[in-house]
Structures are given as structure tokens and as C-alpha cells.
Amino acid sequence: MIAAMADAGLILPAFPFVESQIQPASLDLRLGEVAYRVRASFLPGPDTTVAERIDELKLHEIDLSDGAVLETNCVYIVPLLESLALPPSILAAANPKSSTGRLDVFTRVIADGTRRFDMIGAGYHGPLYAEISPKTFPVLLRQGSRLSQIRFRTGAPLLDHAELEALHRQERLVDVDNADLAGGVAVSVDLSGEGSNGFVGYRAKRHTGVVDIDRRGGYAVDDFWEPIHARADLSLILDPGEFYILASKEAVQVPPGFAAEMVPFDPLVGEFRVHYAGFFDPGFGYASAGGQGSRAVLEVRSREVPFILEHGQIVGRLVYERMLAQPDALYGKHIASNYQGQGLKLSKHFRL
Fold first, then answer.
1. Are 180 and 44 in a shared domain?
2. Which of these three, 153, 179, 211, is where a domain ends?
3. 3-state class of 294 per DSSP?
4. What b/e string do you get for 244-261 counting C-beta neighbours within 10 Å, with b at 16 or more?
5. Listed residue (177, 209, 157) closest to 325, CA to CA
6. Domain that holds residue 274
7. C-alpha span between 98 and 297 (Å, rounded)
8. In this predicted model, what pLDDT tens digit does every residue of 82-119 receive, in sequence order?
């Protein structure tokens, strides 16, 4: 259907799609040839284009045609190679790709006239832009690099509580008894170290080398990450400003006719952020797609104060949406998906 949208002129790529750009339920978005360093993040608002705001806020331009390094804690805006001409019945939502989130590269998509990041209204005609701010590692990007993905919706695909319960009874969405399904499938953090020799996660190092976003398996883990081992009290103190990779206690699966998304965590329960890239394709963790239950990798950052995470503490919820049809290819081994059947796994850039 995504390919058909492009054929019909609803998606307008500057260059033909490349291999693997169309995923089971999303389309990878490609960076254009120039990045604009801007003074601050922004939303254009209803009567302004992103290009107009760039002209007001840009500090300098960076040529990405041969690759360039984006520094940490700076804000960049990059026009994307894909633009949209959506009909009134279709809207779009974007999110960072899994590998982007696991590198702590804060990425959002902006469109003209919008008041929200990553949300493109039904009937939108116009260009798309990526806002990029590396938080931990400087990253090398180039024209054609893919940091974000976009999904297309029509109607009301979100499952309500009764539909989610029925799907769980049929497919066992999470491998626990008495699953908490209020507002979505509850996902908790694993700090036990069971089955992993006491290892529970990674904390990112500071002042590292550059990560080339398009280089797979090119970096030694020890150069960028510190291992975290389980404590006797099964807790972990999150230091403000530090970035952690943890895993869910539960193994989850997404049946072929559905997709799932990690919804924002309730700030009343704790001052931390979990999962920058919260989208799960059809077939994630599904046995017939080579998954047999996969852990959700959690990208965790505390906000203003130190915060204690406890083993089994709920850190997010997965909401499920119905697909219009089962995708031709599911997430998994048949399309060489990076994180099928995963436990605690870093991004594809690191050699384990």
C-alpha cells in the first residue's frame, strides 16, 4: 500500500526508493543534502513554513553530500528527500528508527503549519524536515541516511480495551500471567540479571568517538558503553543527563495483522523518559516470523533529579493498532530485521 501511495503521487520522493526503505508498516525517511544548524528547536505554527523559520534561526549550513559530523547538544534541521500530498482521509505519524533511539540521537519530523512534532495532518501537501540533536555521541550523517520512519493511518485503528483483551486471549501478547492491559499492555523493566550472569544493561560513555550512522558492526562496545550489573536490591539509580539501555522483563509479540507503539509514560509516576523509538512492526516477536517473543529494549534517560528504578516497575505501555491488511513481508528474519528475537541489544552499529 505504501508503494502504491508513491505510485499514485501521494508520497513524492526526490529519488526512487532504495532497498528496504519500505518496512512492513512504515516508510524510512531519507536526509537531504544540507543540514541547518539552528539556535533552538521550534514548531512553525499554523501560518508559517519550516523554511521561513529556518531562515530566521539558522546559524550556518552544513553540506551532507559527502558526509558531515553533527555535534552533541546542537539542534539541526534537515530537509528530507520525501514529501507528501495526502488525501483528506489519510494522516501520518513519524518516529525515530530503533537504531536512532538506541544511539540517543533525538530526532523528530516537522511539517509546514504544524503545532505538533511527528504528526502530519490528513490532507497535508508539502515538504518534511527532520530535527536532529545528538545527545550522547557525535554522529556522521550523509544525504540518504535514514533516522526516522513514517506511518500512515486512516480511520480509527486503535484497539479499545475489550479488543485488546480479546487479542491477548487469542495470541498471548505478553508472556506473563494476569497481564495488565489497562490503557495498553504494561511493560516493566528487568533489573534481575537472571539468565545473563547478572548483566542488566548499558550506560553510555561520554567524550567518545564519532558514530557513522550508516556503518553496521563497526564499533567496539567497550569504546562507547559501560556494562551495568544487577544490584542486590534489584534497583538502579538513574543519574540525570545519563543515557541507559535496558530491557523489558516481559517478552512481547505483535501479530501479523497489527502494529504496536509504546505510549508516553505517565510523568506522575517518575521523572524519566523511556523509549525514544516506540514503534513495533507487524511480526515483531512473533514465532512464525522468527521471534518467539522479543524483549522491548528501553532507551532510558532521567530528567532533572536522580531516580530509582525497581525491578518489575512499569515503565511504559504498548497500544495496538489494526492494519488494513497483513503486510507482504513481516518484521523478522525474512527481511533481515536487526532486532527480531532480541534480548538486551545495542544498535546495529556495535560489535557484540
1. no
2. 153
3. strand
4. bbbbbbbbbbbbbbbbbb
5. 157
6. 161-351
7. 9
8. 999 999 999 999 999 989 999 999 999 999 999 999 99
